[in-house]
Amino acid sequence: MNKRVHEEPSFVLHRHDWSEASLILEVFSRHHGRVALVAKGVKRPTSQFRSVLLALLPLHLSWGGATEVRTLKAAQWQGGQLLPPGEALLAGYYLNELLLKLLAREDPHPTLYDHYAQALALLAAGAPQAGVLRAFELLLLRELGWLPPLDHEAASLQPLRAEARYQLQTQGGLCELPPTAADGDAASTAACSAPYWLALHAALQQVSVWPSLLPLCQQDRSGALRRQLRAALHYHSGVREFQTRRWAQQVQRFVGSRAVAVPV
To answer: Which family is this protein grouped under (predicted)?
Structure first.
């Protein structure tokens, strides 16, 4: 069946050459999930789509076709938002890579779409990148069913003890560190306190999640939450290292020690 979609809210996640004049687009749409589209003739100077089909910009896309790769029919910029500036641009590409690696084709996630749009808007507005990325990682894992409860210990199902520290296990949930774990060792530096986990759990239950979750994620100055979420994302995506993280490291080496590291 030739399925027609009209003016669907969408973002371009990735684009690559298909022919001398055309592109294949990986698109994240609100009601249809991740979709592959062919944009015919878009690389010609006369194409009306040439200046519109950019990553990280909110678009309205129309497409049709009965095959796995649909044909783009129309594209318009929604307006009201510009590209994230400077280092925030690389942070936005990191979000795109997460969606490409973790989302199945044509599996709609409208709530996740809204969180992604909010994350890009915050990056474009100059919000602290680390907090935005950690918040989106938590929301992504929750939306896909891979974030365990953060209000009790996984093995015993007992409430978290206020004085204890807990580590997020990729194949389970929160695991309490033994009292003998020394400060500064590998396990201790990749764990968070019980009050912090409980605060994150409470924030994730809010209807409007970003105002409460973002300030909490900005408190991860030691990088413990980042390391635990990265391990979970690597496990579920099946990749050892995300390409955008490698780019960030290369940029850091090229620019020098004075550059601010992109927190991906």
So the answer is: Belongs to the RecO family.
Q: What pLDDT does residue 187 have?
A: 62
Are the C-beta atoms of 197 and 160 separated by less than 8 Å?
A: yes
pTM over 0.90: yes
Domain 84-264: give its CATH architecture.
Up-down Bundle (1.20)
Q: Long-range contacts made by residues 203-212, C-beta under 8 angstroms, separation at least 24?
A: 204/138, 204/139, 204/142, 204/150, 209/115, 209/139, 210/115, 210/118, 210/122, 210/135
**CB of 78 within 8 A of CB of 9?**
yes
Tokens of residue 197, six digits: 């986990």
DSSP for 137-194, written as a single string? HHHHHHHTT----SSB-TTT-PBPPTT-EEEE-TTS-EEEPPTTPPTTSHHHHT-EEH
Extents of the domains making up the chain: 5-77, 84-264
Give pLDDT tens digits for 135-154: 999 999 999 999 999 999 99
Query: Distance between CA 40 and CA 63 in Å, rounded?
Result: 12
Give the tokens for residue 189.
């530096």
Q: Report residue 59 as tokens.
A: 């678009």
Tokens of 101: 């690696």
Q: CATH number of the domain at 5-77, out of 3.30.565.10, 3.90.226.10, 1.10.10.10, 2.40.50.140?
A: 2.40.50.140
